């Protein structure tokens, strides 16, 4: 987590597991698909963490 980044500001921590992006389960997503889903979020991004 980069200090000052949006992730840091949202209190994400190293080791957090993203289980859904925008309500879509990440179990079958590739890393690239997850990145693209995050990048395509226009204003709000909903992550479900474990």
UniProtKB/TrEMBL annotation:
Compartments, as annotated in UniProt: Cytoplasm
Keyword Zinc: yes
Gene3D superfamilies per UniProt: 2.30.42.10
Domain PDZ: 1-50
Annotated GO CC locations: cytoplasm
Main location: cytoplasm
Keyword tags: Cytoplasm, LIM domain, Metal-binding, Zinc
Protein name: LIM domain-binding protein 3 isoform
